C-alpha cells in the first residue's frame, strides 16, 4: 500500500487535489497507511474530515496543524507520526532485528525517540511508553554511505545531538538528558570499519558517520548565517522535487544527498518511497547531475570569493562520489528498476559512453571515483570493475569501425584503466587471454573475438565491405571516374563524386583511425605500466595472437577462421610501434638492452621453422644447445676453465697455484655470466622489440603485399576496359562484369590505401625499421670493418630472415609511395647496413634478399626522389665499397639455386645498371668505377662478360619479336587479307601482337641499359675492355647491333608506336657508335672487330656514319674519330683476309674444340685433359666455372699451359707465312 494509492483514494472521495494531498500526508503521519485507508473507506469523506479536525485540535494548535501539512523532510514527517501520535505498523519497519535506542527529542527532557541498532539484542535497552522506533530508511538517510554498507548508523551521542539540531532547528546549549546511544567499540555496535580514505576524514570524526566539521554544521540554531542560508538554497535547488531543506539553520549535506538519492527511483518501481521522479531518471542520474552542478558552480569566480562555499561544494562532490560507488556496488539496496539493480557496476557503462539511457559524466567525477577505488582491496576492485570490462567488451564486439559509437567504447576503456588498480584488474580478468576455445584451438579469429582486447583492435577500415559502402559509396570506381557508364541506382546521393572528394574522405577516415590508435595505445600503455603482472599478461596475449595466426604466413587465402583480420593486426602493429618509441628515440644507447638470443629461448615466439640469416637448422640447434644450459651449468664450466688457466699462469710464474687458481675463479664470475649466460627472463625492451617486429611481419608487411596485388588487379582491369572500349564492347555484358569487378577491387584498394599510404603511419614504421637496421648492423659488424667480413657472428646468423627482409620491403615501399617519410630517419646508418649486407655474402644466404636491397638502392637513387646520390656520396662505406659491391653482385646473381634463376637475374641487373648510370653523374663514383679493373681485374672481367651476355640475349629476343610485330602490322595494313580472316583469327592476331609488344618492352629496357653501361664504361676504361677474354665478345655485340639497326634488314624492325615498347633505334645506335669511337685507339679492338666476319662489313659501318651524321647521333669529334677508325678497319680487314688465306686448311689438332678457330695460346684442362685456347676457356669460365667437357669444377688458375702444342702451332704459322711471302716475292 503506497502514498499514491492513498491520494487516489482521497480524490475518489471528492477531495480536491491540493486538499487531498495534504489530508493524505496528515492521515499517514497520524494513523499510518493501513489505518488511514480503512478509515476513509468506512466513514466516508465528511466524517473523515471531522475526525481529522478533532484529532489535530486535540494534539496541538491549528497553526501547528497547518504547518505540519508540509513538513520539511520525510524524516520529520515520520518523526511526527512516531513520537507524537504513536502511529505505525509492523509493515513500516521491514528489518526485524533492530534494537530501539532511546534518544531525547528535545533539550528540555521531553519526548524521546529511538535510533535503530542493527543486529543488537531486542531487549538490550528498555523502551519508555513515549519512545517509538524509527523507520530504517530514516536511519539510512541519516548516515554516511559506509554506515549504510555496514547496516548501522554507528553514531556517537555528540553526532546524534548535532544531527537533531541540524534537522529540527533546536536551540543551542548543552543541557538535557544523556543520549542513550552506545559508543563504537563498546561491544554493542556493529564494529564495521568505515572505508572512507583517511585523507577525507577530519580529526575527531568517527568512522562511518560525517562529523559536524565535515558537514558544515553549526550550533547557531535558528540564527542561521548567510553561508547556511546559501547552503540551504543550493540544496533546495539541487534536490528538487525532494522536500525542501529549512533555510533557518545548518544543513546536513550527507543526509540531504542520501535522502534525495533514495527518493529518486524508477517511475515504475513500487518501492520508491518518496514521490515519482522525472521519467527515466535513476539515483545514478541524480548523483551525476548534482556532481556536475557542483563542479560548474565551483568553477565560478564568485564562489571562490565567499569563504566556506568552495569547501561546501567540494564536500558535495565528495559525497556524490561515495554514493555513486555505493550505488554501483550495492545496486539492489537502492530503490530503482529491476534492470538497474541487475546491472550493478555495469550500469555505469552508458554514463562512460555518454549515451542513452545514461548521460555524459561531468569532468572530474570519474577521476575522483578512480582515486577512491585505488584505496580498495584488490578483490573489491575486481568485483567492481569486472562487470564494467565485460559490458564494454560485449558492446564493442557488435560494432564496426564505421559505427559512431565505436570510438566511445575505446575511450571508456581508456578512462577506466587510468586507475592502476583497474588496469591490473583488466589484465587479470579471465577474458583477457580469451575463453577456453580460443586458447585450445589456436584459431586466430577466435583469439581476436574472444579475448578482452580483441574486439577493440578489430575496429578498422580494412576488410570491411560495409565501411567501403558507407564511406565511398556503392561504386568507388565511378566516383574516381574510372567507369565509362553510370549504372542507374548505384551511384549518387552524398557519396564522393570526384577523385579530390575521395582523397578528402580518405584523409578524414585516416584521421579518425589515428585517434582510435592513439586511444588503444593509451589503454595498452596504462596496462603495461600497471605492474609486472599486468605487463606479463599483455606480453602473453601478444604471444597468443602470434602463435594462433601463423597461417597468415603460409597461405594467401587462409580460412577466415584460421587468422585474425587484416585490420586487427594493423592496429596492433601501430600500437606496438608506439610502445617502442621511448627506446627507439634513444637510438644506439638502447642497443645493449636488446638480446638476439631472445628469439631462440622464448616461448612467446616460435621461429624454429623460419629461415635464418646465415645458419642451417642443424647449426641453429647446436647453437641453442650450447647456450641453453642453465645459468648454474654455464657458470661452473667457465669458472672451472678460468680457474685452471689462472693456475697454469701462476705455476709458470713460480707462484702458488692454489692461491692463483682461487683468485682466478673468483674473478671470473662476472665475465662468465656476462659473455656466456643466456637469460631466461628478458627486459621489457627486448620483448617489445622482437614482438613488435613479429607483429609487423604478420600484419602490415602482409598488408603491403596484398595492396600491391590489389593495385596490380585494378591496373589489369583498367587495361581490359580500355581494350573493350576500343573494340566496341562498351555496352556489353562483358563490360558490365568487368566494371563490377573494378568496383570491388577499387573499394578494397581505397580501404587499404587509407592506412598503407598514411604518411604518419609510414613515418613511424620507418623510424622503427631504421632503428632495427642500425641494431642489425652492430650485430653483424661490431668492429665496423665494413666489407669484406671474414665471418658471420652467431647471434646475427641465427636471426630470422624476415627481420632483414621487412626492412627492405618497407624501405622500398616508402620510396615508391611516400618518399618524404624518409626525412625522419638517418639514411647514413641505413645505407651502411645496405652496403654491408650486399657486399658480404657470408651474412645472407639468400641471394634474393641481397637483391632486394639492390632494388632499394636503385629506388633511392632515382632522380625524382628527394633523397639520392648525395646521401651515398657522404657515406663512408658506400664511397669505398659501392663500386666493387655492385660489380661482384652483378656476377653473383647469375647463379641463385632457383629454377627461375635465368630470368630472375635480369630484374636484379636492371637495378644495377640503373645504379651505375646514376653513379656516373658523381665524379667520385665515376672514378671508383674506373679503378675497379686495376684493383679487381678478375671481377671486372666477369662483370663485363655478363654485361655482354645480357646485351646479346636481350637484343636478340627483342629484335626477333620486333620483326614478328612488323609482320602482323603489314598483315593488318593489307585490307583485303585482313578482312579475309575470321573474327577469331583477327582476335588471335591482335592478342599475339599484344604478347609480343609486352615481351619486347621487357627485353628492350634491359638491352638499352646494357648497351648504355658499356658506352659509359668505354669513356674511361679502354684496355681492360679489349683484353683477350673480352675483345672478341665485345666486338661481336657491337657489330651485331650495328647490322640490325642500319643493315640490309633494318626496315624489318620498323613498327608503329615504337616508344610503347621502349625501342629507340637512334639512341641505341648512338651508344654503339660512342663505344666504337672510345675504343678506336686500341689495336686489339680493331682486330677483334674485323675478325667478326658474320656481322661486320665496311658498308654497314659506312651507313652508320651516314645515319649518325644526318641525325646528330654523335658529336663532331666522335664523327672524326669514327671516320679515321673506318680507314683503320679497312686496313685491318685487308691484312686479316690475307692472313686467313695463308692460314687456311688448319690442322685439326691446332683448332679450338669449342670455337673451331686456330689456337694461339693452348692450355690443358686438368680434369678432361683437353687442350683449348686460353681465350676460349677464359670466356667460358667467366660464366660457368666448370670444365665444359665433364662439368667438373674448374678455375682459370688450374689450367696447364700446353707449351708443346703452342710451339708446333707457332712453327706451322711461321712456315705458312714464310711460304706466302715467297709466293708473293
UniProtKB/TrEMBL annotation:
**One GO BP annotation here?**
ubiquitin-dependent protein catabolic process
Name the pathway.
Protein modification; protein ubiquitination
Q: Which domain of life is it from?
A: Eukaryota
The places in or outside the cell where this protein is found are:
Cytoplasm; Nucleus
- Biased composition of type Low complexity is found at 208-219
Q: Does the keyword Nucleus belong to this entry?
A: yes
| Residue ranges occupied by any U-box domain in the UniProt entry | 1145-1219
The catalytic activity, as recorded, is: S-ubiquitinyl-[E2 ubiquitin-conjugating enzyme]-L-cysteine + [acceptor protein]-L-lysine = [E2 ubiquitin-conjugating enzyme]-L-cysteine + N(6)-ubiquitinyl-[acceptor protein]-L-lysine
Q: Which keywords describe this protein according to UniProt?
A: Cytoplasm, Membrane, Nucleus, Transferase, Transmembrane, Transmembrane helix, Ubl conjugation pathway
Which EC numbers characterise this protein's activity in its record? 2.3.2.27
Per the record, which residues fall in region Disordered?
168-221
One GO cellular component term of this record is: nucleus
Q: Which family is it part of? A: Belongs to the ubiquitin conjugation factor E4 family.
Q: What is this protein called?
A: RING-type E3 ubiquitin transferase
Upper lineage is: Eukaryota, Apusozoa, Apusomonadida, Apusomonadidae, Thecamonas
Amino acid at each position: 500500500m503506497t502514498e499514491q494509492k492513498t491520494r487516489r483514494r482521497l480524490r475518489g472521495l471528492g477531495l480536491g487535489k491540493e486538499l487531498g494531498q495534504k489530508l493524505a500526508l496528515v492521515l499517514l503521519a497520524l494513523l499510518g497507511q493501513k489505518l488511514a485507508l480503512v478509515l476513509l473507506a468506512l466513514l466516508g469523506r465528511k466524517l473523515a474530515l471531522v475526525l481529522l479536525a478533532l484529532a489535530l485540535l486535540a494534539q496541538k494548535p491549528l497553526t501547528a496543524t497547518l504547518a505540519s501539512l508540509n513538513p520539511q523532510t520525510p524524516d520529520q514527517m515520520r518523526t511526527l507520526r512516531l513520537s507524537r501520535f504513536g502511529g505505525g505498523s509492523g509493515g513500516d519497519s521491514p528489518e526485524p532485528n533492530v534494537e530501539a535506542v532511546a534518544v531525547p527529542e528535545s533539550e528540555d527532557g521531553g519526548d524521546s525517540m529511538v535510533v535503530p541498532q542493527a543486529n543488537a539484542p531486542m531487549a538490550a535497552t528498555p523502551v519508555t511508553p513515549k519512545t517509538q522506533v524509527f523507520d530504517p530508511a530514516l536511519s539510512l538517510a541519516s548516515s554516511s554511505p559506509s554506515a549504510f554498507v555496514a547496516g548501522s548508523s554507528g553514531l556517537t551521542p555528540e553526532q546524534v545531538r548535532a544531527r537533531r539540531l541540524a534537522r529540527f532547528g533546536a536551540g543551542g546549549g548543552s543541557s538535557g538528558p544523556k543520549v542513550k546511544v552506545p559508543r563504537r567499540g563498546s561491544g554493542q555496535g556493529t564494529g564495521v570499519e568505515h572505508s572512507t580514505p583517511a585523507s577525507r576524514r577530519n580529526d575527531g570524526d568517527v568512522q562511518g558517520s560525517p562529523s559536524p566539521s565535515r558537514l558544515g554544521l553549526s550550533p547557531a540554531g535558528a540564527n542561521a548565517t548567510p553561508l547556511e542560508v546559501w547552503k540551504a538554497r543550493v540544496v533546495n535547488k539541487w534536490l528538487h522535487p525532494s522536500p525542501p531543506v529549512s533555510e533557518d539553520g545548518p544543513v546536513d549535506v550527507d543526509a540531504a544527498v542520501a535522502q534525495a538519492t533514495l527518493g529518486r527511483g524508477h517511475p515504475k518501481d513500487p518501492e520508491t518511497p518518496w514521490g515519482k521522479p522525472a521519467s527515466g531518471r535513476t539515483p545514478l542520474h541524480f548523483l551525476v547531475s548534482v556532481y556536475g552542478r557542483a563542479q560548474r558552480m565551483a568553477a565560478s569566480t564568485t564562489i571562490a570569493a565567499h569563504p566556506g562555499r568552495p569547501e561546501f561544494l567540494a564536500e558535495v562532490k565528495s559525497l556524490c562520489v561515495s554514493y555513486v560507488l555505493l550505488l554501483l556496488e550495492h545496486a539492489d539496496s537502492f530503490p530503482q528498476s529491476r534492470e538497474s539493480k541487475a546491472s550493478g557496476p555495469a550500469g555505469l557503462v552508458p554514463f562512460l559512453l555518454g549515451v542513452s539511457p545514461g548521460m555524459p559524466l561531468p569532468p572530474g567525477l570519474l577521476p575522483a571515483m578512480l582515486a577512491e577505488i585505488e584505496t580498495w582491496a584488490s578483490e573489491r576492485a575486481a568485483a567492481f570493475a569486472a562487470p564494467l570490462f565485460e559490458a564494454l567488451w560485449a558492446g564493442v564486439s557488435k560494432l564496426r569501425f564505421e559505427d559512431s559509437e565505436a570510438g566511445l567504447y575505446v575511450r571508456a576503456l581508456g578512462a577506466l584503466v587510468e586507475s592502476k588498480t583497474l588496469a591490473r584488474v583488466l589484465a587479470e580478468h579471465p577474458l583477457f587471454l580469451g575463453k577456453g576455445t580460443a586458447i585450445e584451438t589456436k584459431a586466430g579469429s577466435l583469439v581476436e573475438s574472444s579475448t578482452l582486447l580483441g574486439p577493440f583492435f578489430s575496429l578498422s577500415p580494412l576488410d570491411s565491405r560495409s565501411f567501403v559502402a558507407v564511406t565511398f559509396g556503392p561504386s568507388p570506381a565511378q566516383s574516381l571516374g574510372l567507369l565509362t557508364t553510370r549504372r542507374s541506382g548505384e551511384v549518387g546521393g552524398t557519396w564522393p563524386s570526384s577523385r579530390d572528394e575521395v582523397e578528402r574522405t580518405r584523409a578524414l577516415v585516416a584521421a579518425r583511425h589515428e585517434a582510435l590508435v592513439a586511444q588503444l595505445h593509451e589503454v595498452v600503455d596504462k596496462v603495461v605500466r600497471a605492474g609486472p603482472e599486468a605487463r606479463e599478461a599483455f606480453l602473453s596475449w601478444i604471444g597468443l595472437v602470434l602463435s594462433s595466426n601463423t597461417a597468415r604466413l603460409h597461405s594467401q587465402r587462409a580460412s577466415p577462421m584460421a587468422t585474425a583480420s587484416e585490420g586487427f593486426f594493423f592496429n596492433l602493429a601501430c600500437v606496438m610501434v608506439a610502445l617502442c618509441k621511448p627506446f627507439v628515440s634513444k637510438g644506439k644507447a638502447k642497443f645493449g638492452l636488446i638480446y638476439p638470443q631472445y628469439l631462440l629461448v622464448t616461448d612467446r615466439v616460435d621461429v624454429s621453422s623460419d629461415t635464418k640469416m646465415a645458419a642451417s637448422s642443424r647449426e641453429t640447434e647446436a647453437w641453442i644447445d650450447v647456450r641453453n644450459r642453465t645459468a648454474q651449468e654455464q657458470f661452473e664450466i667457465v669458472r672451472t676453465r678460468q680457474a685452471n688457466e689462472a693456475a697454469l699462469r701462476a705455476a709458470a710464474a713460480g707462484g702458488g697455484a692454489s692461491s692463483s687458481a682461487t683468485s682466478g675463479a673468483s674473478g671470473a664470475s662476472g665475465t662468465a655470466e656476462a659473455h656466456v649466460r643466456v637469460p631466461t627472463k628478458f627486459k621489457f625492451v627486448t620483448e617489445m622489440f622482437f614482438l613488435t617486429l613479429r607483429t609487423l611481419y604478420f600484419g602490415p608487411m602482409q598488408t603491403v603485399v596484398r595492396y600491391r596485388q590489389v593495385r596490380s588487379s585494378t591496373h589489369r582491369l583498367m587495361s581490359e576496359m580500355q581494350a573493350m572500349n576500343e573494340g566496341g564492347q562498351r555496352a556489353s555484358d562483358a563490360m558490365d562484369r568487368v566494371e563490377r569487378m573494378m568496383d570491388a577491387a577499387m573499394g578494397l584498394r581505397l580501404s587499404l590505401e587509407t592506412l598503407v599510404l598514411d604518411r604518419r603511419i609510414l613515418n613511424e614504421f620507418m623510424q622503427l625499421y631504421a632503428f632495427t637496421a642500425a641494431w642489425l648492423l652492430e650485430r653483424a659488424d661490431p668492429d665496423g670493418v665494413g666489407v669484406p667480413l671474414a665471418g658471420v657472428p652467431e647471434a646475427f646468423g641465427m636471426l630470422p630472415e624476415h627481420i632483414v627482409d621487412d626492412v627492405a620491403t618497407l624501405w622500398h615501399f616508402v620510396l615508391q609511395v611516400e618518399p618524404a617519410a624518409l626525412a625522419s630517419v638517418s639514411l647514413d646508418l641505413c645505407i651502411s647496413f645496405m652496403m654491408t649486407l650486399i657486399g658480404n655474402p657470408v651474412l645472407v644466404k639468400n641471394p634474393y634478399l641481397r637483391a632486394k636491397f639492390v632494388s632499394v638502392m636503385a629506388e633511392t637513387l632515382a632522380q625524382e626522389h628527394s633523397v639520392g646520390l648525395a646521401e651515398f656520396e657522404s657515406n663512408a662505406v658506400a664511397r669505398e665499397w659501392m663500386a666493387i659491391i655492385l660489380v661482384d653482385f652483378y656476377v653473383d646473381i647469375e647463379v641463385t639455386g632457383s629454377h627461375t634463376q635465368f630470368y630472375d637475374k635480369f630484374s636484379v641487373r636492371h637495378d644495377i645498371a640503373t645504379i651505375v648510370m646514376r653513379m656516373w653523374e658523381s665524379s667520385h663514383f665515376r672514378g671508383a668505377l674506373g679503378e675497379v679493373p686495376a684493383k679487381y681485374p678478375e671481377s671486372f672481367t666477369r662483370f663485363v662478360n655478363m654485361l655482354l651476355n645480357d646485351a646479346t640475349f636481350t637484343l636478340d629476343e627483342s629484335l626477333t619479336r620486333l620483326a614478328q610485330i612488323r609482320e602482323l602490322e603489314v598483315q593488318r595494313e593489307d585490307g583485303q587479307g585482313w578482312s579475309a580472316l575470321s573474327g577469331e583469327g583477327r582476335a588471335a592476331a591482335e592478342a599475339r601482337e599484344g604478347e609480343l609488344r609486352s615481351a619486347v618492352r621487357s627485353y628492350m629496357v634491359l638491352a638499352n641499359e646494357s648497351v648504355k653501361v658499356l658506352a659509359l664504361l668505354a669513356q674511361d676504361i679502354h684496355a681492360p675492355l679489349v683484353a683477350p677474354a673480352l675483345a672478341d665478345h665485345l666486338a661481336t655485340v657491337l657489330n651485331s647491333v650495328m647490322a640490325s639497326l642500319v643493315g640490309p634488314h633494318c626496315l624489318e624492325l620498323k613498327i608503329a608506336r615504337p616508344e610503347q615498347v621502349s625501342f629507340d633505334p637512334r639512341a641505341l645506335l648512338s651508344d654503339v657508335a660512342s663505344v666504337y669511337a672510345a675504343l678506336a685507339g686500341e689495336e686489339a679492338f680493331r682486330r677483334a672487330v674485323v675478325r667478326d666476319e658474320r656481322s661486320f662489313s665496311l658498308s654497314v659501318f659506312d651507313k652508320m656514319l651516314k645515319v649518325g651524321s644526318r641525325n646528330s647521333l654523335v658529336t663532331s669529334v666522335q664523327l672524326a674519330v669514327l671516320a679515321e677508325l673506318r680507314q683503320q678497319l679497312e686496313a685491318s680487314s685487308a691484312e686479316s683476309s690475307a692472313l686467313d688465306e695463308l692460314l687456311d686448311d688448319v690442322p685439326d689438332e691446332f683448332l679450338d674444340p669449342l670455337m673451331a678457330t686456330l689456337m694461339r695460346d693452348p692450355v690443358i684442362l686438368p680434369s678432361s685433359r683437353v687442350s683449348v685456347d686460353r681465350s676460349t676457356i677464359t670466356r667460358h669460365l667467366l660464366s660457368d666455372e666448370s670444365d665444359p667437357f665433364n662439368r667438373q669444377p674448374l678455375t682459370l688458375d688450374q689450367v696447364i699451359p700446353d707449351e708443346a702444342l703452342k710451339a708446333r702451332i707457332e712453327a706451322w704459322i711461321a712456315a705458312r707465312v714464310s711460304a706466302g711471302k715467297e709466293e708473293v716475292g
